[in-house]
Amino acid sequence: MRILIIDDNKAVRLSLKMVLGSEFDSILTIGDPKLLPALLANGDFDAVLLDMNFDTSRLDGSDGLFWLERIKSMPQAPAVVLITAFGDIQLAVEAMKRGGDDFVTKPWDNIELIAKVKSAIRKNRLARSVQAVLSQAKDTKARQDKLDAMTLDELKADHINSVVARCNGNLTQAAKLLGINRQTLYNQLKK
Amino acid sequence: MRILIIDDNKAVRLSLKMVLGSEFDSILTIGDPKLLPALLANGDFDAVLLDMNFDTSRLDGSDGLFWLERIKSMPQAPAVVLITAFGDIQLAVEAMKRGGDDFVTKPWDNIELIAKVKSAIRKNRLARSVQAVLSQAKDTKARQDKLDAMTLDELKADHINSVVARCNGNLTQAAKLLGINRQTLYNQLKK
DNA sequence: GAACGATTGTCTAAATTTTAGACGATTTCA
DNA sequence: TGAAATCGTCTAAAATTTAGACAATCGTTC
Fold it and tell me: Are A150 and B159 within 8 A, CB to CB?
């Protein structure tokens, strides 16, 4: 399980890395959230630990909420556990509303932190798989719709391509599978 | 939300019905679990309250476990909240392992019971929808596989049928959509 | 590297299918 | 009811598919 930690305080980053290091496969810490989109683009991370107050000039956490939404709008979004200053309940609640999976307050309890991250990952996995299946279903639906509107020749060409590909280009075999003459297959491929 | 209650004790059934009646749309109580498959076949119920000790001659709860598995193996299984005798922790744990969503011990706390049933239903809904989507995805996958293996003529016939159906049998229009001559469409339909 | 079977690309000529067009009969819809 | 669209059927030409044959090439096995 891979974790990504974002906090502008180097000491906090190190501390978090120490605590979580023993429990997770790999941990990456960064100080600048601008790197987030690039790092998460591949869906490599299972969870993100996001500090809501990383910009000391803006204490309302709006930056944190902004990045939270950016993360959660991604196709294969990781679990997000938010780190808020002690007592900042309103911000925490708002963050949960906007898709955060859990939050911990500074200073944190190490055991609780690990448990929350793990639990958030578990919870998020189901949502991810649902999303994956849904998007897949949507794709096949779209393909079906497209298929319905196809001309007979287009459909033929499509199917021929797929069968030829599945035969690794063996045209003799493909023709046999398609139930047509080899010569006919040549004719079709010429178009 | 519809609830099904199974308990061999008539007084218990009445009592449960009273407690839950105010919170759920409709409640059906039965004393004999043999009716379960028929009642659940349509997927009408959101939750089942199942007494593990309804057969007084067998106190090990094996009958309850049996019916729990029957219920949970159904395609659109409802949430199952189990009722166990006080202190029968081992049985409760075993039941949870086998797919039970929650359990209450006799005597029960009314508020807690309602909360557990509601929570179990919520939890189960997600699982149900996941299952539904998964089975749908499986279907479309199977259809795709079948499609891949089709002969060109079979594929043609399939597509022609679907287009003709979509044109409500208007062959002139269907032929135009398919990009073939009307006469050719007649030929194809003859086979 | 020789030998073998399978595949390829190309050709021919016959068989089959598709096509455009036409025709009166029937259906649809305003 | 009346015009437009569709149907079912036909013809003859055009296009496609088919089986079969051939030498060349490829991959495997010995």
Answer: yes
**Proximity of residue A182 CB to strand C below 7 A:** yes
pTM, rounded to two decimals: 0.49
**DSSP label of A74:** S
What does the block give as tokens for B78? 């409802």
Residues of B with CB under 8 A from a CB of A: 126, 129-130, 133-134, 136-137, 140-141, 144, 147-156, 159-160, 162-163, 166, 177-180
Question: Could you give phi then psi for residue A73, rounded to 5 degrees?
Answer: -90, 0
Contact, A189 CB vs strand C, < 7 Å: no
For testing contact with chain B, the best of A152, A166, A177, A185 (most B CBs within 10 A): A152
Q: Quote the pLDDT of residue B46.
A: 92
Q: Over chain A, what is the mean pLDDT?
A: 82
Give tens-digit pLDDT for A121-147. Answer: 877 887 787 777 777 777 777 777 776
C-alpha to C-alpha distance for A71 and A60, rounded to whole angstroms: 19
Question: Which of A41-55, A136-150, B117-131, B168-182 bottoms out in mean pLDDT, i.e. has the lowest?
Answer: A136-150
Q: Judge whether B188 and B170 are in contact, CB under 8 Å.
A: no
For chain A, the residues whose C-beta falls within 8 A of a C-beta of chain B are 126, 129-130, 133-134, 136-137, 140-141, 144, 147-156, 159-160, 162-163, 166, 177-180
CA distance B17 to A91: 42
- Would you tell me how many other CB atoms lie within 10 Å of the CB of residue A179? 13
Query: How large a percentage of chain B has pLDDT more than 70?
Result: 90
Q: Please state the separation of Cα B8 from the chain's center in Å.
A: 24
Q: Coil, strand or helix: which one is A102?
A: strand
Shortest CA distance to B101 belongs to which of B68, B61, B62? B68
**Residues facing residue A80 across a β-bridge:** A48
Q: CA–C1' distance A156–C9 (Å)?
A: 23
Report the gap between the CA of B82 and the closest CA in chain A (Å): 24
Question: What's the pLDDT tens digit per position in B52-63?
Answer: 876 555 566 678
